[in-house]
Design a protein that fits this description.
The chain has about 450 residues and is of the alpha/beta class. It has two domains: about 240 residues, Rossmann fold; about 210 residues, 3-Layer(aba) Sandwich (Rossmann fold), CATH 3.40.50. About 30% of the residues lie in helices and about 25% in strands. It is built from 13 helices and 28 strands. The strands form seven sheets. The chain has a seven-stranded parallel β-sheet with strand order 4-3-5-2-6-7-8, with helices on both faces. The longest helix has 14 residues.
Length: about 450
């Protein structure tokens, strides 16, 4: 199969240059032209996609070339762009930043090459002028296999400043500058300890996004960006066998924790579960009094339970409902914030302890002074409903909290190749809870195994 959808990748010089703001505005401007825009985010990010989804009116999907095999990544991209007019991809960190300093795995540049997509370099020029040309030239020459088709500027201070930087980049690096954003404190997205504030909690109002689109329309040549995207060559799409050809089995109801405290899910994880027979039933650990009726499984993703710990602890009926369901044998998968919610309790930033569901025999505390983050190669220490003993999967960690009392290895879920002395998570016959985030396309058997475990559970087996 071959796809010809126009596509463009926006990469940055570093983190913090304003990629999310610019890409969200660009997506909105393209949508105003009547185009159906498929938004994407490179890397293991749950927050930035919320802004792009809002602007596109479509889900934003992650493209991670380290966690997900290359054939699977291209297949997921092709499925998501089938009925779209253009695809816009926000990069991660700097354009060439990935898993290590010597290889391109996981980088924006690698994803652009896998997709056959031209890339634009976004530069923050707040504290530079002519030197921007040297920076752009270095990026252009660093990887001759990457098609770097132009540059975009952010934090421009004045018309003269814009002229100097534009001349430096276009003459010094022979890269066309396709637009810019001025310094505008009123167009800065809200941040806190793990990045931007998720749109599921709170987000700027319509006026903010309308102003952002107006700014993009005024100072970015959107038509030229679209021309560059349209120059992408046809892309051959392999079959990674992630999705079933058809399913005639009845649907299985799986509860999905979804509210202000829990909203970190890869869109493709949800789509894969649905494809293999799941009916995902949203519920709120904050607001609802009990789990939905008729569930055969439970999926509690990540989020910020530490910020809502008092509210979660106050909802004792839901905590009892969750704990009782897991005790009865309900297959339950929990990641990061989900692990914290299922633990004995959470100690928040102020040192206050809040009782949680108690399904996992440990507690979590926001006492760590540095962030635990990075890619992980996880090997199952025992059989669980996703992995057999000894099987491995690639995933990602990103958290400030720590387990106050780490579990012994015989009760832990994984060992990490990158941290062999630190067993991670908790696994039993029906519960898998860990700080590890998984993309279900990392292995083609993850989603069907989860659904089949849920299908095998019934009230009669309790």
């Amino acid at each position: 199969m071959e796809i010809t959808v126009p596509r463009i990748v926006i990469g940055g010089v570093t983190s913090g240059v304003g990629k999310t703001t610019l890409v969200a505005g660009l997506v909105g401007a393209l949508r105003l032209r009547g185009l159906r825009v498929a938004p994407f985010k490179v890397g293991p990010d749950y927050i930035d996609p919320g802004y792009h989804a809002r602007m596109a009116g479509l889900p934003c999907r992650n493209l991670d070339s380290w966690m997900v095999p290359r054939e699977a990544l291209v297949e997921l991209f092709a499925r998501a762009t089938t009925s779209c007019d253009v695809a816009v991809v926000e990069g991660v960190m700097g354009l060439f930043d990935g898993r290590s300093g010597i290889e391109e795995e996981g980088s924006t540049a690698q994803v652009a090459k896998l997709l056959g997509a031209p890339a634009l370099l976004l530069m923050s020029v707040a504290k530079t002028s002519r030197s921007a040309g040297a920076i752009a030239l270095g990026f252009k020459q660093f990887d001759p296999e990457l098609r770097l088709a132009g540059a975009l500027l952010n934090h421009v201070g004045s018309p003269n400043h814009r002229q100097w930087v534009t001349e430096a980049v276009e003459r010094g690096a022979d890269l066309p500058v396709l637009g810019y954003l001025p310094r505008r404190p009123d167009l800065v997205l809200p941040e806190r300890h793990l990045g931007l504030v998720p749109t599921a909690e709170t987000a700027p109002g319509d006026r903010f996004f309308d102003q952002l689109i107006d700014q993009i329309e005024s100072t970015v040549d959107v038509s030229r960006v679209l021309e560059v995207a349209s120059s992408a060559a046809p892309l051959d799409v392999p079959c990674a066998n992630l999705f079933p050809s058809a399913s005639t089995l009845p649907k299985v109801r799986i509860g999905l924790a979804l509210d202000r405290a829990f909203n970190f899910y890869y869109e493709d994880n949800l789509e894969l579960l649905r494809a293999w027979g799941a009916e995902l039933v949203p519920f709120s650990p904050l607001e609802d009094a009990a789990l939905p009726e008729g569930l055969r499984g439970l999926y509690i993703g990540g989020g910020f339970p530490e910020l809502f710990a008092a509210e979660l602890a106050a909802n004792q009926p839901m905590l009892r409902s969750v704990c009782d369901a897991i005790t009865s044998g309900l297959p339950t998968y929990a990641e990061c914030g989900g692990l914290m919610y299922l633990s004995q309790g959470i100690t928040d930033f102020g040192g206050v302890y809040h009782q949680m569901a108690g399904a996992v025999p440990t507690s979590s505390a926001m006492t760590q002074r540095r962030l635990t983050m990075g890619y992980r190669t996880a090997t199952a220490l025992k059989d669980n409903f996703l992995l057999r003993h000894g099987e491995s999967v690639r995933g990602h960690e990103f958290h400030w909290s720590v387990s106050a009392s780490p579990l012994p290895e015989d009760r832990s879920a994984y060992s990490f190749a990158e941290a062999p002395d630190r067993p991670e998570g908790f696994a039993s016959h029906n519960l898998l809870a860990s700080y590890l985030h998984l993309h279900f396309a990392a292995r083609p058997d993850l989603a069907p195994r989860f659904v089949e475990a849920c299908r095998a559970f019934s009230p009669s087996t309790r």
